[in-house]
Amino acid sequence: MDEKDLTFSKIKKKYNQSKMIMKIMLSPSGVRFDGMPKGHSADADAAMMRYEASKEYVEIVDRTIAVFDDTTSTILRKLIDGDSGIGIAQSINYSQDYFYRHLKPMAVANFVDVCPVA
Question: Residues 20, 21, 25, 26: is their CA dihedral positive or negative?
Answer without folding.
Answer: negative
